[in-house]
Specification:
It is a single chain. Helix 3 runs parallel beside helix 6 (146-160), helix 4 (121-127) crosses helix 6 and helix 6 packs parallel to helix 7. The chain has 262 residues and is an alpha/beta fold. It has a single domain, classed as Rossmann fold, CATH 3.40.50. The protein is globular, with a radius of gyration of 18 Å. Helix 7 links the parallel strand 9 and strand 10 (196-200). A 6-stranded mixed β-sheet has the order 6-9-10-3-11-12, with helices on both faces. A 4-stranded antiparallel β-sheet has the order 2-1-4-5. The chain contains 10 helices and 12 strands. Bound molecules: adenosine-5'-diphosphate and magnesium ion (MG). Magnesium ion (MG) binds next to helix 1. Keywords: ATP-binding, Nucleotide-binding. InterPro entries: AAA+_ATPase (IPR003593), ABC_transporter-like_ATP-bd (IPR003439), ABC_transporter-like_CS (IPR017871), FeS-cluster_ATPase_SufC (IPR010230), P-loop_NTPase (IPR027417). Residues 4-245 form the ABC transporter domain. It holds the Pfam family ABC_tran. This is Fe-S cluster assembly ATPase SufC.
Length: 262
């Protein structure tokens, strides 16, 4: 039985069809890369796997270790071991970073009387290269740089100890040194925990650390091609998406010519 199995998935948001017959199978411990032009449905796929109610499944089926996900609420999916780092992590005023990390790990909020030294969020913040003294007590995302937000998100994902982590452009807006820190941590985590990872990226920098098994290229709400990640990246860098895929639906050409999201 596969860890994640998605068959002929069709999804609409506010009546707009976004996913159009997507198929994807992941086994335990596998690392899959998803690429594709802006607007091809990559983030929609991640939000649908996690179970956001506004992402309306009109056809198809998703299972996780054989359990059907389609109508399961988000918190049940999180309990099964699915965790996501969002493309655009939210700012939440009034909630401390240390507390969301503890909640992600199913731990009670920090009470200095029971636990003189905070010992759940602190090591995870260190692990992702954020100084706990400076970040622990800050409101989530508020005033964080792009890279700091991404690292704080990954600390929450690590806290959840997922069986499947979904990372939506973890490398966007992150400087090259931080990128290496994040990539090394992710690579170690995947190996140690035998965790499966679905990673959306436009760049190859982190691939050597994550050792992906396969790359998929999405366009128009479905996976159009799959192959060896390094070969797929090389071809797309040379040819661009339209020529690589051998098609160019309306809207896609203009998007790719304008450049990728940063
Ligand atoms: P990607 O992550 O591949 O860039 P997305 O999955 O974010 O693409 O978006 C796919 C398409 O769905 C886009 O055309 C986008 O405008 C549309 N879309 C995403 N979210 C919404 C929404 N909440 N309401 C309406 N359209 C949406
Ligand atoms: Mg996206």
């Amino acid at each position: 039985m596969s860890l994640l199995e998605i068959q002929d998935l069709h999804v609409s948001i506010d009546g707009k069809k976004v996913l159009n017959g997507l198929n994807l199978t992941m086994e335990k411990g596998e690392v899959h890369v998803i690429m594709g032009p802006n607007g091809s449905g990559k983030s929609t796929l991640t939000m649908t796997i996690l179970g956001y109610p506004s992402y309306n499944i009109t056809a198809g089926k998703m299972t996780f270790s054989g359990t059907e996900l389609n109508s399961m609420p988000i918190y049940e999916r999180a309990k099964l071991g699915i965790s996501i780092a969002y493309q655009t992590p939210p700012e939440i005023r009034g909630v401390k970073l240390r507390d969301i990390i503890r909640i992600s790990g199913n731990k009670p909020l920090w009470n200095p009387q029971d636990e003189p030294e905070e010992n759940i969020a602190t090591p995870l913040l260190k692990k992702v290269g954020l100084n706990p003294e400076q970040f622990r007590d800050r409101d989530i995302g508020v005033g964080f740089s792009g890279g700091e937000r991404k690292r704080a998100e990954i600390a929450q994902v690590f806290a959840a100890m997922p069986r499947l982590m979904i990372l939506d452009e973890p490398d966007s807006g992150v400087d090259i040194d931080s990128l290496k820190t994040i990539a090394v941590d992710l690579g170690e985590y995947i190996k140690e925990q035998n965790c499966a990872c679905l990673i959306i990226t436009h760049y190859r920098h982190i691939l050597p650390y994550l050792k992906p098994d396969i790359a998929h290229v999405m366009c128009g709400g479905k996976i159009m091609k799959s192959g060896n990640p390094f070969e797929v990246f090389t071809q797309i860098e040379e040819k661009g998406y339209c020529e690589y895929l051998g098609l160019c639906p309306p809207g896609i050409k203009e998007e790719t010519e304008r450049g990728m999201e940063i």
